[in-house]
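sry for the spam today, last one i promise. struct tokens for design, 417 residues
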């Protein structure tokens, strides 16, 4: 990037979730002047409420061939893994058709390869940044356990074989091995697959905040404002806020599930859907600690030990981003979670968030096709906490005119806009 002789900020990053904070930090590390804008504290939305898994093995998105086998149970709209709103579905038939088309076998391998590259780069950054940010005590290298109540060894073996193809390590566990690994849970699981290279954190929101503090500590600026619009301004950009304006040479849109709204006035119709999800936290039993995130494969819920308690997260709810909450999925799975781990009364309120998802379940990472200096970094679906750092680093590299350290061709915004 040529030297900045104007009075504009080099880069303004819109959105201080894990993706925006990472982009801001990476750009600052490259010596650019950077402002990070959010209406809330960093890491307060989707990057707060997720399950905190930094997942080596989440290279196969929801829309993979097995989805077709599961469709009958999902269409019933009774399974905890997926609920969908009929009105939303009727308005989004095009998105659904493209989502299903991406689930074909021929479409799955290239996407898994692309996500594998993104995840690998991101895991490395997380492990470095979390220490540099003074939050190294929050990461746990205890893996992630996917567990089956039925004797479904075949499913676990199939998962393991698929991961092995990409060099991702895992361990098959029987009932005894699961009890040895998690001595404090009830022995409800017959088979498990431990993703050994996966880490998790005890508060994704606080990790995101720690990265934001690291950014600010290195001279980056964090501004709390509502972002109203963006418009081209000479050779740069003007960002209109509720309380003023910012001029910058480059704008990064990292607004997670809100990203498409800001781009519409510029003529970009981004097919971004929101896969909503919920969590509730419960007082842990100090004498019977849960040691790692456990995903209950048949009942589609996850429970994980967090700073405030045991966090139980629900499956996917396909509906409008801002539609009223429905607690059915959570109500179904919380009693099932209680049958595995001992925990007490709820802590705090039920949380709702929205995974931002494009039809092929790959994020958009790159320049906007028709506007110089506009960069897109969103759509990280179920694995945005994992993939935020490398998404941000790739954007910073491109702004600096450098090559990202992994293949980003599959993430080009041009595939949709
Ligand atoms: C239930 C659930 C469990 C999950 N579990 C995991 C997991 O274990 N591991 C994993 O890797 N991922 C997980 N995810 C996915 C992950 O949380 C998301 O992909 C990721 O947090 C997206 O980050 P983001 O920075 O793109 O968006 P966000 O974190 O939502 O950040 C966007 C920011 O933009 C701001 N913003 C929006 N509009 C405006 C505006 N007009 N003005 C000012 N600011 C604005 C918001 O305030 C927000 O801070 C999970 C998601 C859910 C819902």
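last one done:
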């Amino acid at each position: 990037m040529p030297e900045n002789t104007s009075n504009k900020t080099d880069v303004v990053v819109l959105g201080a979730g894990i993706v925006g904070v990472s982009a801001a930090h990476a750009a600052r590390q490259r010596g650019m002047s950077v402002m990070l804008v959010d209406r809330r504290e960093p890491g307060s939305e989707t990057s707060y409420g997720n399950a905190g898994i930094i997942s080596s093995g989440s290279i196969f998105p929801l829309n993979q061939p097995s989805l077709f086998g599961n469709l009958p149970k999902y269409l019933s709209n009774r399974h905890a893994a997926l609920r969908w709103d009929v009105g939303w579905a009727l308005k989004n038939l095009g998105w659904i058709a493209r989502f299903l088309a991406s689930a074909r076998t021929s479409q799955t391998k290239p996407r898994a390869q692309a996500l594998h590259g993104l995840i690998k780069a991101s895991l490395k950054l997380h492990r470095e940044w979390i220490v540099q940010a003074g939050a190294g005590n929050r990461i746990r290298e205890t893996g992630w356990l996917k567990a089956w109540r039925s004797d479904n060894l075949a499913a676990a073996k199939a998962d393991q074989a698929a991961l092995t193809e990409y060099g991702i390590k895992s361990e098959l566990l029987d009932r005894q091995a699961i009890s040895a690994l998690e001595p404090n849970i009830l022995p409800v699981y017959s088979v498990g697959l431990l993703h050994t290279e996966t880490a998790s954190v005890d508060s994704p929101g606080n990790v995101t905040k720690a990265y934001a503090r690291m950014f600010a500590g290195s001279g980056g600026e964090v501004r709390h404002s509502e972002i109203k619009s963006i418009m081209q301004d000479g050779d740069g950009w003007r960002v209109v806020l509720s309380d003023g304006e910012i001029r910058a040479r480059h704008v990064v849109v990292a607004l997670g599930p809100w990203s498409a709204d800001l781009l519409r006035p510029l003529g970009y119709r981004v097919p971004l859907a929101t896969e909503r999800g919920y969590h509730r936290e419960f007082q842990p039993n100090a004498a019977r600690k849960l040691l790692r995130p456990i995903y209950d494969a048949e009942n589609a819920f996850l429970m994980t030990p967090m700073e405030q308690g045991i966090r139980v997260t629900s499956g996917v709810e396909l509906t409008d981003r801002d539609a009223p909450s429905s607690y059915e999925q959570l109500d179904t799975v919380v009693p099932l979670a209680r049958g595995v781990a001992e925990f007490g009364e709820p802590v705090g309120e039920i949380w709702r968030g929205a995974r931002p998802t494009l039809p092929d379940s790959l994020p958009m990472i790159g320049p906007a096709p028709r506007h110089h200096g506009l960069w897109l970094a969103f759509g990280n679906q179920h694995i945005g906490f994992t993939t935020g750092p490398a998404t941000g680093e790739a954007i910073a590299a491109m702004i600096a005119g450098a090559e990202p350290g992994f293949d980003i061709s599959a993430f080009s915004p041009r595939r949709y806009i």
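The chain has a mean pLDDT of 97. ok im logging off now
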